[in-house]
Input
Amino acid sequence: MNLALIKTSSMGDVIHALPVVTDIVRAMPGARIDWVVEESFAELPALHPSVNAVIPVAIRRWRKSLFDAATRREIAAVRARLRGARYDLALDLQGLVKSAWVARMTGAPIAGFSRRCAREPLAALAYRRRFDVDPSLHAIERLRSLAAQALGYRVEGLPVFSLSPPEEPVPGLPERPYALLLHATSRAEKQWPDEHWRALIARLAQQGLVAALPWGSPAERAQAESLADAAAPALRPVVLPKLTLRQCAAAIVRARLVVGVDTGLTHLSAALDAPTVALFAATPAWRFGPYWTPRAESLGEDGRWPDLASVLQAAGRVRAALPAGRRPDAEGGLA
Output
């Protein structure tokens, strides 16, 4: 079976779709899976060893200059590559008009959400096969259910990401043990208050963990520098340089702890089985938060931010939990 998975954005949504690949290769050994994704997120599907090829698209950039000759050449090149792969099925995991448009570029039969279940019902008109999915499911389980119905297998057990974390240098990382604090998000209502971050930085320093602050935009860098400037010199966090997604993944797996708001990197941390505390208030944790590993916990709900004490308690629990596939040996070490 030669498959094209269409999940172009956003970062968290792309990460939530990765267990679908694991499910497919378990149910259909030998399946060949390509992933079509927005160019800025192309490094993410490549972390899964069973993704054959990552095919970047640039919808966010194309829509700004749709009638330019250069844009039309890029679109034609993507269409030719997708048609040339001769897919047996294109599976639209996004349910948007833009993802349906990309799926149609493949020339293959398309499967996706039913009109009732698609985020944009008009997208379902492009699908040859449409499937209902329970809207009360977690976002990951909705995607797993869609793929299983489309390909004729049963979803079993918790989601498995099976990611291969990159081993590469990360500029600016502290030499001491560190906690990666994912403070930045594009939506103001998702931001944990700065006074909570400042208090957490101080408490982690008392526990021997220096805070490391990544950022992705000038505004996020300014917030990181503000948090660093507010700390006492002995407790000052490290403001990292701008990192690629692969470098972010490498920084995550080396961290002793990751605390983050509802943003793509927090979901990546949980997917990589790093000790993760995910902070929610503006979005429902039951729909988007990690649930598949004791190494990650979600806190907060319905507009109520978790307090510092709750975060520190959760941090202790996830740090004490064993990584996937590890167990204590007879002498109390890890086997």
Observations:
- Residues 11-27 form the longest helix (17 residues).
